[in-house]
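task queued by scheduler; priority normal; single chain, no ligands, no partner chains; default sampling; output format set to structure tokens
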Amino acid sequence: MPTNRDLLLVSVGNTSITAAPAPGGVLEGMERIPHGPEAADRLIEIAGKLDAEATVVIAGVHADETTRLAANLSKLAGPQLRIEDDLAAPIGRQLAKDATPGIDRLLAAAGAWSMTKEAVIVVDAGTAITVDFVDGEGTFHGGAIAPGLHLMLQALADGTDALPSIAYKSPKEDEPFGADTESAMQLGTFLAARGVISQAIERYALSYGAWPRVLATGGDAAALLDDAEIVDRVVPDLVLRGMLEAVQQAEATEEA
């Protein structure tokens, strides 16, 4: 059931924040904001587009940054809700006993399920790369976690004497070989990430007995997967969609 109240949705990742206003429960204009002292100011500016009593909904995998933001956003007049404290992540789970998957993984899965209502694989390409499986009943089964593009490059620089610290750039399609050290690192990182994703998708499809839809999200999803045939669609705001679904399910339960 759609909500009709104004919301500010805030997801705190390991290296950045994604946020969007949702006036009347409709997502608008997602932004990606770096961690830092100016993040709260920008979020308060975004909240200014909404009703003064708008509800702030926060989820986070970076504990310290989430706590700081929540404290700063308490200046706003509206109520504040935390996913898993005040609102449940709206996805069923079939996991090992005492498993504690990251809230971003659960919310991305919930967002994907809300869009597809069928078995779906969720690729989140951020600080880490996760590839998770949701079955046809909307149950989250977990998946695979690997280093993200920037972590892989940094590990090469940190773990060797000669390899440089470089930023990620997508390799050029017309250059099949890394002709110097930096381009070889870029290509190796790209192929490693693509390999993890494609192998995980094939593994899940084989286990499930069918080829599920594949949705991708995360800060590096476009650079890594925009042209990938194995991905049906890149959805940048998938975690925020999961947060919106959490609000809607909670309201539906209250009204039942």
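post-processing summary
- The mean pLDDT is 94.
- The CA atoms of residues 8 and 27 lie 9 Å apart.
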